[in-house]
Amino acid sequence: MRILVVNPNTTVGMTAKIGEAARSVAAAGTEILAVNPAMGPVSIEGFYDEALALPGLLQEIARGEAAGANGVVIACFDDTGLDAARALATVPVVGICESALAAAGMIATKISVVTTLSRSLVPIEGLVRRYGFAERARVHASDIPVLSLEDSASGAGSILRAAIKSALESDGSDAVVLGCAGMADLARDLTAEFGVPVIDGVSAGVKMVEALVGLGLKTAKSGAYARPLDKTYTGALADFAPAVILRG
Amino acid sequence: MRILVVNPNTTVGMTAKIGEAARSVAAAGTEILAVNPAMGPVSIEGFYDEALALPGLLQEIARGEAAGANGVVIACFDDTGLDAARALATVPVVGICESALAAAGMIATKISVVTTLSRSLVPIEGLVRRYGFAERARVHASDIPVLSLEDSASGAGSILRAAIKSALESDGSDAVVLGCAGMADLARDLTAEFGVPVIDGVSAGVKMVEALVGLGLKTAKSGAYARPLDKTYTGALADFAPAVILRG
Amino acid sequence: MRILVVNPNTTVGMTAKIGEAARSVAAAGTEILAVNPAMGPVSIEGFYDEALALPGLLQEIARGEAAGANGVVIACFDDTGLDAARALATVPVVGICESALAAAGMIATKISVVTTLSRSLVPIEGLVRRYGFAERARVHASDIPVLSLEDSASGAGSILRAAIKSALESDGSDAVVLGCAGMADLARDLTAEFGVPVIDGVSAGVKMVEALVGLGLKTAKSGAYARPLDKTYTGALADFAPAVILRG
Amino acid sequence: MRILVVNPNTTVGMTAKIGEAARSVAAAGTEILAVNPAMGPVSIEGFYDEALALPGLLQEIARGEAAGANGVVIACFDDTGLDAARALATVPVVGICESALAAAGMIATKISVVTTLSRSLVPIEGLVRRYGFAERARVHASDIPVLSLEDSASGAGSILRAAIKSALESDGSDAVVLGCAGMADLARDLTAEFGVPVIDGVSAGVKMVEALVGLGLKTAKSGAYARPLDKTYTGALADFAPAVILRG
Amino acid sequence: MRILVVNPNTTVGMTAKIGEAARSVAAAGTEILAVNPAMGPVSIEGFYDEALALPGLLQEIARGEAAGANGVVIACFDDTGLDAARALATVPVVGICESALAAAGMIATKISVVTTLSRSLVPIEGLVRRYGFAERARVHASDIPVLSLEDSASGAGSILRAAIKSALESDGSDAVVLGCAGMADLARDLTAEFGVPVIDGVSAGVKMVEALVGLGLKTAKSGAYARPLDKTYTGALADFAPAVILRG
Amino acid sequence: MRILVVNPNTTVGMTAKIGEAARSVAAAGTEILAVNPAMGPVSIEGFYDEALALPGLLQEIARGEAAGANGVVIACFDDTGLDAARALATVPVVGICESALAAAGMIATKISVVTTLSRSLVPIEGLVRRYGFAERARVHASDIPVLSLEDSASGAGSILRAAIKSALESDGSDAVVLGCAGMADLARDLTAEFGVPVIDGVSAGVKMVEALVGLGLKTAKSGAYARPLDKTYTGALADFAPAVILRG
To answer: Which family does the similarity line name (chains A, B, C, D, E, F) (predicted)?
Structure first.
């Protein structure tokens, strides 16, 4: 099984860390392809960055499926372009927010999500509602910029720990979800430190794709995820055509 | 007052029709600038098209605000990129689904939304929930492709009328919202024919922007619509930088 | 265009202030008629006052429409008798809570509503849910009696400011809605002071009615807002017959 | 125990029928006082009639409590003025829609509510949501005018039976609630005919008030049902002052 | 009328207290049968205890109905096995959480539920949602073990009072529901002390059953509460067969 | 990895079929232990059967974990005793309704659940809400008794196919979930026949447990799934003590 893990921002160091987290949980026969787009923002912090990350993300997914990927993980906690990706792909596609919440919901009753900037609260709260966790999960910002997680001298670790401690107390929760792909390397340590399950979405996404592929499931093509209709694209996007790549 | 009306697809004929609908309701002192991006899909039918329409749409909004627009209407019924646009702009930005529902909700109790393809049902139902109309509005597909609305010989008119009739009966509704910018020219006739208010989102969007501008309101910049952070964009999007245009 | 703005309580000074706020945002061709009933309570603070304000309010609306008003704003933040008014009138009728939330929802993501007495929290929270803002708006009481807003020596201004500050912090909101018609004169100053949009419902109501009238919309008469059936009214209400006034 | 049952419309024959239904279930020591206002509409069909019924209804409740009633049933299925009545009274006040749903919810899983005119669907659906039955109860109109229930030659009985049959089938429900006080005499027969519990709100209201009084409960006065504040009422309502009556 | 009140745990002293509370509000002609199962846990604190209490509880209900009980109160605040009991019984069955919320909802607007251990928060919050009180009631733990309520020297009373005080303040509520059958004896005193209605579910349950029986209502048998199908039970449950007891 | 799959009813043939379905999707290194309790009902059809299945189910889970199982699938579509099982176990426990919905939600937008008897609609609809699929999934009964799925001559297959066809049409769904463990062998064929993903919960449950175990997750023990408190159990359950088995 070959799983494509797409970091939708263009920061190569973060892609490496994400790939490592993915490989650390992948089953014996699973190959992880960790990539990021060549075009787009260096990090995704809010609605605007997410929008500009989409074309590059979709291009990577099209290339990955054309190259034989059996499933896709979108490795940004706003589940960047998840619906568009599912319309494009025929293999299963999951988001890391979605996967982390699904896993957390099966082992705990109340969930604290701890993310980076406060501008991401509203988009993530929207995902929490979409995935059916409105009554069980609350979202908190730690006010750590995404890329400071890549910098060990930034103090991000201790700020994150303080945010987790505060969230567990105020929510009365029994599990934590880390709300940024850049935190993927911290889950195991934090689980030990806090004594509650602390879940990283990248790892969860890999296991969810393994599960879907293992069930022989493909993305449903008879509804809103129907294959994109053939149509003309112009301008900068004319040469760039994920759907065309896939149609081969 | 100058209102930018952006058709997020690249079909110029549809932009013209949208501009006409906008002008037909604009107040005496309101100038309408109807534009469409140079890059992107010729029509937006589903999640994938929407994603690829975003960069071009955001570019038009940045240019429009830089050129003095006081407010923006996004003239596609999936409210393409509404949150990203609000993060980008400082002037008010409204979607036509949002505006049509807001207007309908002030004059009626139950609302039938009639859109084009069935693949658009799920995205529009998502908007209905987002805007707080889950208990009041139901969405129906007429199975008319968007561009057939541009072709008077397509029979789209009579198919649409049948879909409206059926929706009113099954919903017990007292108002209709037309679920595609390409239907903007039909609202007045359909109101007369069906004896219930039939609302076009393009017109509603113009009046909502006039209202917001008249109230002196700007998009809130202290929360999730905070101005995009300065960061590097690479690849095809490097030269294209809506946020940079705006910071100008 | 002629817009009837009805203050549903009987305090003439408050009607004057409301009229002034309405005129300050009205479009060039819009005439504002600010009135209040001759019968009813001097202020509306809670469910009981609201009920006793209804007959006088409906009478003013019937008179206004008979005299040529093109639309109606009900200028009390509990949106007094909104449904009954819509059943009575054929022109559009909006409430100021409804209008303020609609405007706020188009420029911000999370909204703090700051009202007067704590006994109004439950009725306003009911409106917040009705208008679809349950996930986005929270309501706070400042414990200022309505009529103290008419008395510049009452200290109401500083109490209100403290309540707004506290609400913004606890809600993490990016806009404020003033929850009483008696605060209509404060929005502009408070916007400047707090650096977030602060919205007054009276102004918002006027612009929403202008929008609806500009769209050629009338209140839907085929559903729950159907014209009241002809029937006998007895007692103190026999001589008083809003529906009869309208039927001419 | 003395229970005041107020029919909020002015039709004396309907009050008599309501009183009879109330007495048929009242406990041994319970005295039923069935009254109707002297002022207001002859029947309540929609939002407008409800509004004009309020002053007379509140006056009857004030008189009743002053005369020693231990609890109040508001005997119209739109639960006319329930919140205002609770703010006015210190004894418990229940609505018949509320009481019927509470009873139905304790013996069945899904509930069909069958009411009179379709213009009452929206108000009753609002009550269904308010009382927490949105997922369990659906509302149907039989298109019987309220007063035709008072006329045995109207054929209302067979129309109602057809509506119940259709509702049970389409809802897959296991209980029926009769959605009009004028149907209070039919519950027992319909239960036998349809083989499912058919519940009348007037009877249910009496038993709920008996329960609340038996528990020694009074209406809470520290929140939104706080005693109306002392204030001036003018015009036709000056002489009429339910709150003053109660303050004695 | 004969009402079976089942304490689903095996602590006889608690059954006695529950019986006393039930009798203190029962109507003149109502006989209270307070029982507890011979098998099961000594107290119910969380999901696991609840599951193991079910067989004994159902056996008591079958015996009670066979012996002529006209209705049943399940006297544990997690409404242990309510749906199974309703499927088994033909007489009405109510839970004490359900009954207390129903009563509270008719006299107050916002409700604070104060229960024992924090592990019971999630199950009770589930009930609050099920009964339609998600927007009106919040649940608080006092961290008192259930059986310490049976021990006057445990200090449970003062801990409970502190929890009630804190809950009223943070919720802005106007009524309190005691979230454990073991608190049944405290409601009257606490009502006096706090000046808000404080409601005990055991008492409320008795009055609700009296109401349902007085209305001639039986549990609906055409839906999800249909009589259990005849089938073989094996093992420890073979000899024990509530449904068989009832079928006689 | 060793996964315990518990069929909570006592029908050995069904356990065998469930075990086969589980093994057909299990990863290379996963051992499946398919068991059923010795005590309880031969099938679970409705709330009552579910209650009596709990003690036997919990006993099997305790034995399984004591014997080294790394995770548990509860193989009945009402997710029998899921919360109690999670409180008992330290390894992850999933239900098959939960697992099937989670998988379906990642590849499709709208889901039709097709179950056996109509008395199971309400319990399963409750699960659909609990897992956050209220807006996406609808439940249908095929009126096939559970055990007729074990009898190839019963015609159950063609009845089920008709129910699936009807559900897809009325729901406009793009995926089907089979609502009974007894249908576990049919998913692959039905997927091919209907051209939409058809999902079996037993298989989905196995893959979800593999995912959770692969992530190193255990059931959270700091909240509502806290380890059962030490306490006395009496009667038929005294000798039977799942929690004691686990505590060793």
So the answer is: Belongs to the HyuE racemase family.
